[in-house]
Amino acid sequence: MADDKPVFLITGASSGIGAATARQAAQAGYRLVLAARSEDKLGALAAELPEALAVRCDVQEWADQEAIVRSTIDAYGRIDVAFANAGFGGARGFEGSDPETWKEMVLTNVYGAALTIRATKPHLVQSKGHLLLTGSLAGRRALPSVYSATKWAVTGMGDGARQDFEGTGVRVTLIEPGMVDTPFFDEPKPGNLEADDIARAVMYAVSQPAHVDVSEIVIRPVR
Question: What confidence score (pLDDT) does residue 96 get?
């Protein structure tokens, strides 16, 4: 195993956009670190890929985030790309959802992404690597939902991270998809984007020359 082969860490990697990105990154020659709460799905995905490490992680827990980074460095010695992708949504409106679900959503979508940035930052600086965050179209226009509010927070976090990494050589990309047919939605609708569509956008951003920083990619289905 070549020590200079790049390493791609993905949270929320067990299904949907995370799993699709893992498969495309493997095809592009990356070693993978797959992080999520679903150990069975992670293990099955890792078994498909030539060089993939599966690590159970609840992104809300700082100790878990530290552990995935530690496991990555122990196994591969570096982190070149960190994709803060873990997240979930919920119903629109401020009456139909369980407030405990809102709390979980904020902790996963916002706090979890912030912890991923903090945990991976020193290693991204060392490799002059790339940070990506999964935002949403719902983070560009207000919708009546807590989910939309969390994705507005991720939009701001992406801009803030870019400023924080200024001068280090680290690139920061915010991926902002519209509706995607993934387990994220209970009832996928015809004509939506597919997880592979978003994964291709991720790989486009990371494949650019080192002096090119694709700051945001908005991806909409054709209607």
Answer: 75
Helices vs. strands in the chain: H and E counts, helices first: 7, 9
Question: Does the structure show a pLDDT above 80 at 64?
Answer: yes
Instruction: Pull the structure tokens for residue 218.
Output: 């908005």
Tokens of 176: 């902002």
Type of residue found at 11: T
Contact predicate 13/85, CB 8 Å: yes
Name the residue among 105, 102, 106, 104 with its Cα closest to residue 94: 102
- Compute CA 179 distance to the chain's CA centroid, rounded to the nearest angstrom: 16
Single-letter amino acid, residue 112: G
What length is written for the chain? 223
Backbone angles phi, psi at 214, to 5 degrees: -80, 100
Beta bridge partners of 131: 82, 172
Burial class (CB in 10 A: 0-12, 13-18, 19+), 220: exposed
Confidence label for 148 from pLDDT (cuts 50, 70 and 90): very high
Say whether 81 sits in a helix, a strand or coil.
strand
> Per residue in 113-141, pLDDT tens?
999 999 999 999 999 999 999 999 999 98
For the chain, give percent helix, strand, coil, nearest 5: 45, 20, 35
Residue ranges in the chain assigned as alpha helix (H): 16-27, 39-48, 62-76, 99-106, 113-127, 146-164, 195-206
Q: Which residues are catalytic, by number?
A: 147
Token reading at 198: 């978003």
Give Dmax over CA atoms of the chain in angstroms.
54
